[in-house]
Amino acid sequence: MNISLICFTRAGFETMKRINDTLSGASEALTDEVCPEQHDKSAEAEDRPCGGDTLYKSLWIAGRYALQLAAADAGVPYQAVPEGGLSEWTKEAFLRDDALIFVGACGIAVRSIAPYVRDKFQDPAVVCVDEAGQFAIPLLSGHVGGANRLAEMVEKKFAVDVFAKDHGFVITDRKLAKEISADILAGEPVGAFSDFGFSAWKKIPEGLFEDRICKRNLWVTVSGKEKKGIPSDRVLRLIPRCVALGIGCKRGTPVEKIRTAVESAMERNGIDLRSVFAAASIDIKKQEQGLIEFAKELQVPFLTFSSEELNGQPGDFPESEFVRKTTGTGNVCERSAVAACRLGVRASECRILIHKEAKDGVTVAAAYYMIGKSGENADREEKSRG
Questions:
Q1: 10 Å Cβ neighbour count for 284?
Q2: What percent of the chain has pLDDT over 70?
Q3: pTM of the model as a whole
């Protein structure tokens, strides 16, 4: 099956990318429902050949600004429509493709296809999607060509990549994410699990089923372990960046020792390192090269706090008199982790995840905050970078 997608603006390019990702992996559903003559052997259906069971997609761009954006996006292969060449492109696409998806103004699509419309048994399916991806309108060959079903499939539904971006989650398996998005398109149920509960979700997205094991599932978690009772190849972990590391060390400790101590503590406690949004310590360590380098490796900010700020953190912390005499606070790592987590959130929303652990002169602790409504996790991470 051949599908061509075309856009005209920067916003349209972003939506076209999302549609392209959503359609990837949905080959069977598309060829079953958008190429009906593969399965409907009536004489009328046989009049219109289909491109076969394999899905081929091509992305086209017509528009100077959209081309500029696409040129900077090395991950998306596309072809340019020459200026003034939209009519000729449409003519060729009508002969070549089983379906066309216009991302942009409906009027552009209608004017482009008008000269080449013949009948519903020969014309490709034509769908127009608005630039925001909210609405999809079947323009041509709705039933026989499958445009109605194609419009339903590409209209903005739950997509893993969009959901993860909106919430600031890390996707652990891109291939599985595409398969889950394809399952949603095909009407297959997808299980949804969250270590943070669902109370903050405005609603469970259509196609996801709370705490129900399905063929494929997603799991919002900071865990680096497999989910009990479900094979790892059937669970996509979505990792919120809601964990702050608190680190203490001797002066001049090399980054290698710090990295080893942190990785050992995270692995021992089953926490995925990708959940970290910041590394923190006391302000007398703000020039500690090993800590600075480690934060750069993680691509997270390195935050420091005064002894007064650390002593003001709520909670019960094991205290070291020696550390207090040296730094002004009896516990650097746990208090630093909590202080970083509390930037912009209530103390009641922060919890110690890993209590103080020591290795080769490095102390490590971790705290996390409870993720909340849509977008809050991403906003929270941005505040820490500020």
A1: 15
A2: 84
A3: 0.68
